[in-house]
From TrEMBL:
The keyword Repeat does not apply. Keywords: FAD, Flavoprotein, Oxidoreductase. GO terms for molecular function: flavin adenine dinucleotide binding; oxidoreductase activity, acting on CH-OH group of donors. Residues 98-272 form the Glucose-methanol-choline oxidoreductase N-terminal domain. The lineage of its organism: Bacteria, Bacillati, Bacillota, Bacilli, Bacillales. It comes from Oceanobacillus arenosus. The keyword Flavoprotein applies. InterPro entries: FAD/NAD-bd_sf, GMC_OxRdtase_N, GMC_OxRtase_C, P2Ox-like. It comes from the Bacteria. This is GMC family oxidoreductase. Residues 329-450 form the Glucose-methanol-choline oxidoreductase C-terminal domain.
Amino acid sequence: MNGSALKKIPVTPISQMAKKDYDVLIIGTGAGGGAALWRLCKKWRKNKKRIGVIEAGDLVLPTHARNITGLNHKKLFNKLKSVIGDDLPHYSGATQALAVGGKTLFWGGVTPRLHPIEYKEWPIPMKDIENYYKIAERVMNVTQSYTKDPIMKTILHSLKDNGYPEATVVPKAIEINRKNLGILHSSDLFSSLSFLTSALNHRSFDLGINARATQIFPEKKRFIIKVAPKHNNIYFLKAKTVILSTGSLETPRLLLHSGVKGDTIGHYLVNHSSVRVKRALKIPDYLRRAGRVDILIPQSNSRLFQIQIHGKQKGLFLTGYGKVESRFENQLTLNSDDVDEDGVPKLQIDFSYSEKDQQIIREMETFVEQISSVIGLQRNRRNNDSLLSLRPPGADNHECGTCRMGIDPSTSATNSYGQIHSIPGLYIADNSVLPAIGAVNPTLTTISLAIRTVDYIVEHSK
């Protein structure tokens, strides 16, 4: 690991940040927070407005974990993550990763666009988000041209020839041609650190690390943010505008603990039901070729799930992601009788799959069996185990909807630009604003909306 790369992102002590008045303060450095910071620095590169960003975690990596030769990224993630699902029986697969860059340090880079049928539940016209998809895809280097491996072509042809013409290469945020142009640069698989280093190429900003925001207090024309640094005193930061990007579980937790009013904050928790094969399936000899497989069978109007096929010639894994209904009763609340080390009430989550969700799960299981048969994959069952397992809720890392956007304040937490209905100047730029995601990985959509939110903030700050 090149530890010196971490020094390229300067850090500002929270004690110094507490002495300043920020025009915009971003809380969280994951996908949404990183995108918001990059866009803000680009738009404000010629002015002297003050931009700050704080992160509850530390600077632990200089780039995506898989870009570092010799690093066991799975082992590192297991060491870094907090399995908060251990205390959430209805959402037992949930994890949290506190670090600059968040879970984008470890994600697979899968970046499909939302299926068009999902926009029926959105307050944004499809043509509007299309423009921001293009911006996000360009800056994230989204491509399907990262592989020309023989095995990929062979299995794609097999699927297309057997009734699955929609099968395609998984779109990924990955840089193919690395060039060192003498500027700050993160390489290969994309992470939010790329947003931070790109932002620094436009202008400076203050980054505070190991600094968790625990409460937000709206005042006249500004906000006071209570921050609890690790092993240190409490500080209070000041900002005219705040962008929350701490995720679909932590963002509503912060809002609820701050007393922010909103009938739907914490409700409408959505994720993906997910099934996957328990072990790699053997590829028949006549299909074996060199290289890696990354194939997507996308959601369609009638098929409310997507299937990802990945692996190498030694064996393939199949994972299905199913659409989950958006329901008010799937919610998170605060347990005032159980607080953490910073005095913040811990989460309680009520979550279950509806009958429609269960039907989609059954359809996914059948479909995975069919795809395995079409490709000719050979099962390696042990003790008559079933081929598939249903992952626990939260294990997909795709939770959304807990601060969903909309027109009506009685059924949504924010407006179409991510601003809390009841509090001008308080915005959200993370998965929690997404009202519907279908069966699609949400990261690209979240980043696109974060960029759109910043454009709105910049336009209305003139």
